[in-house]
Amino acid sequence: MTELATRTTEVLPWATFRVLAHRVQRLSPHLVRVTLRGTDPGGLADLADNGYDQRIKLILPPAGGNLDELPTGADWYRLLRAMPDRNRPTVRTYTIRAVRGVGTETAELDLDMVLHGVSGPASAWVCRLLEADASARSRPELQAAVLAPSAGHGGPHGGLEFVTSVTEGLLLAGDETALPAIAAILERLPWHATGTALIEVPEPADAITLTAPQGIRIVWLPRDGAGCGSRLAAAGTSWRPEPGRPQPGRHEAGTELPEPDDEELVWEVPDEPAEATASAAGPGIRAWIAGEAGAVKAIRRHLVGECGLARQQVAFMGYWRLGRAES
User: If we measure between CA atoms, which residue out of 178, 65, 62, 192 comes closest to residue 112?
Assistant: First the structure.
């Protein structure tokens, strides 16, 4: 009986929260902040705030439908994939920008979302939110859900890649899709942190105000019509360790990262914090790279090649690839 009770009361790492847009704020020409509040009893009180680059799933209703049939629990994704196309909700990955009121029924979750017209379901949803007044945001087509870390789970949740205590000579690089994660990381860094943040955005007006330690140099890279990822790749492949810091030791023979297939997203993160392997990998330089897969791939090759960073010193994530929607 005790074993059965333990199994039935186990809290999963992630939980599904039904939400509505409480506020919608245009931050820049291409960036919109959507503030979500829970609609179920307890709201978002059970949401865990892990900070940094915590990823979640945003779940949107199908065209002309609602989320009444949304599956939950450990097997939610398999059940969702088995749903008929006309009834299947859309699932997209986002980074939590901020959480307020942790542990209370009025807790709020901010998502900073890139706006690019109605070409994608998430951007189209944001466009509809911008057009709707507060009283209309409870319409079924504007409702949503998030699959997010559960505060009641005692172990790790996953979906968090910036795991390091290294604070000197950091490199953060990403495009507008990685901007919310970079912003959240910068806010959580200690005051004495040093390094560089390279951020590619569509145009100069998308360079929003960020909070960061004084030792972090923020470099905005407006595309102004150039190809997606081109400015980021150029800046990232020009990066070198900070002046005055020793050149990192070359990685050992045989530790080179395999070249990803051009059709695959680039995604690899260290199995353990970079400082745990500092003696073997050289100085504790920690690089976090995210955005369009082609640009991430180019920067990653530069870091582990010319810069000599070891595998455990770099986290790189191809959030998306030109010409391909998130599946």
Answer: 178
pLDDT digits (tens, 9 = 90+) for 237-271: 999 976 655 444 444 433 444 554 544 567 887 76
Containing 108, the helix (H) or strand (E) segment is strand 108-114
Report which of 114, 118, 111 is spatially closest to residue 97, judged by C-alpha positions. 111
Question: 101: which 2 tokens?
Answer: 């009121």
Q: What angle do CA 245, 184, 106 make, to 5 degrees?
A: 160
- CB distance 2 to 183 below 8 Å: no
Question: What tokens were used for 320?
Answer: 């998306």
Q: According to the 3-state scheme, what is the secondary structure of 280-326?
A: HHCCCCCEEEEEEHHHHHHHHHHHHCCCCCCHHHEEEEEEEECCECC
Question: Tens digit of pLDDT for each residue in 71-111?
Answer: 999 999 999 999 999 999 999 999 999 999 999 999 999 99
